[in-house]
Amino acid sequence: MLPVAVSQSTTSRWELSDDLAHSSEHGFEAISVWRAKLSDCGIDRSARLISNAGMRVSSVHWAGGFTGSDGRSFNESVADALEAILAANDLAAPVLIVSSGCRGGHTLTHAHRLLRQALEAIAPAASRAGVTLAIKPIHAAAAVGSSFLTNLSQALELVEQFDDSSIKLSLDLWQFGHQPDLLDLLPRLAVSTAAVQVADRIGRPSFEQERLPAGEGSLPLEATVLALLEEGYAGPIEFDPVGEAVEEMGYEQTLASTRLLADRWADAWVEAQATTLAATARVHAYDAHGSLSRMWPDGQLQPWQIQLRSALPRRSHASSQIVSRG
Questions:
Q1: Is 325 part of any domain?
Q2: Which CATH number characterizes residue 260's domain?
Q3: What is the pLDDT of residues 277-297, one digit of tens each?
Q4: For residue 10, is it within any domain?
Q5: Which of 105, 107, 120, 302, CA to CA, is 20 to 30 A from 143?
Q6: In whole angstroms, what is the distance from residue 227 CA to residue 230 CA?
Q7: Pick from 9, 64, 48: which is nearest to 31 by CA?
Q8: CA 239 to chain centre
Q9: Residue 288 burial by CB count (10 A; 0-12/13-18/19+): exposed, middle or buried?
Q10: Total number of domains constituting the chain
Q11: Is residue 279, in this structure, part of any structural domain at all?
């Protein structure tokens, strides 16, 4: 089984007790918790309900907004983040998603400085609580008024510069699932990512945030997730479709179809692991000349990487414009 979870944002009109009952009914063992619903239910009661349902919390969403864009001071936002860390600890959640917030009238350089200062202030508390802070970049086309951290590569570099196990990345495939250099970034992302969010789309990201159920759009989600797993990613895979498609389909059908898709991915992953084990066995088999025989020669892509590479756009060598394959 893959470590999959479903987000409370998907079932926005349900209360926590409904989320737990229906998610469990459809075979999910974990949910991604939104703090708005925690506030409605209370931390202590939420913890009891989750424990009694035999469910786990994959992550808590969210803390952040350290630039003052939401009317809070820097210190107030830091205090709120510390409170969110305590909530994650009470719920035994391994991950707290962190949003940078928008620039809030600051220069981009100063906005980055405020984010760094905030992370430095709250990282010790997160480490003591056993909670990983997962910084979530947002695609520029969808980040209007919500985030200044809009470049996946720069967000990854920020995490790597901290070199702190309590500070990692939240990778939203709806935001960056068609990024041309995604395949090249996967080895680094697998190491530096604490949570992966999964939703589909048709076309580019947009501020409307219509997040389709996985498999209903054009993103190479299965290939990307399998490639991340192959590179060593071991964190939660959180399905979080949101929007008109979900409302029209209904929460029950959305959960059911998502569970079926997650099971297909799990079967594909088991098959991939079996293939890898067979390849490993052949690595130890010497050929007639006494040299190692390999199923996957150096530089050769695995099948899911071939699928992903064929699905991703590429950049022309002559310009920075994205061009299609074929």
A1: no
A2: 3.20.20.150
A3: 776 666 555 444 444 433 444
A4: yes
A5: 120
A6: 5
A7: 9
A8: 9
A9: exposed
A10: 1
A11: no
Q: What is the DSSP string of 15-62?
A: -HHHHHHHHHHTT--EEEEEHHHHHHH-HHHHHHHHHHTT-EEEEEEE
Structure tokens at 1: 């089984």
Structure tokens belonging to residue 73? 């001071």
Q: What is the band of 325 on the pLDDT scale with cuts at 50, 70, 90?
A: very low
Q: How far apart are CA 120 and CA 318, in angstroms?
A: 41
Structural domain boundaries enclosing 234: 4-272
Widest distance between CA atoms in the chain: 72
pLDDT 10s digits, 167-186: 999 999 999 999 999 999 99
Domain membership flag for residue 27: yes
Nearest to 59 by CA among 198, 158, 177, 176: 198
User: Rounded to whole angstroms, how far apart are CA atoms 41 and 25?
Assistant: 21
Residue 83: Cβ within 10 Å count: 13
